[in-house]
Design a protein that fits this description.
Helix content: 25-40%
Distance between the termini: 21 Å
Shape: flat
Number of strands: 4
């Protein structure tokens, strides 16, 4: 987490391991903002540079359990199946993302694919 202001942004990347471009982007953004505290005035930035470490390690869209994490969240049109997970939030990575959202109540979420 960077900053301590009321305007909260949550940035995550690497939810699909075969889309790794966001991972170094989030890391570079972090380094930049650490040097530019003036930009962070009144703001909080919550970051998750690698949302699916197993998928990233194997360069695949699914986690170690074969689930597409981007489809593992509660929604009105959710279908429980192998690729989406046995139930909403069945995967630890999705639960962590939900926990961060619940904890910080971001004003905006940026998911870099």
């Amino acid at each position: 987490m960077l900053g301590q202001g009321p305007d909260v942004t949550f940035i995550l990347a690497g939810i699909h391991g075969n889309e790794p471009a966001g991972v170094p982007l989030v890391r570079r953004l972090t380094k930049y903002l650490e040097k530019r505290s003036d930009i962070m005035q009144g703001r909080t930035l919550v970051r998750l540079a690698v949302a699916d470490p197993d998928g990233l390690a194997h360069r695949c869209r699914i986690n170690a359990n074969g689930v597409d994490l981007n489809r593992n969240f509660p929604s009105a049109n959710r279908v429980n199946e192998r690729r989406t997970g046995a139930s909403a939030l069945s995967e630890p990575e999705a639960r962590l993302i939900k926990q961060l959202i619940d904890q910080y109540s971001p004003d905006r979420i940026v998911s870099i694919h």
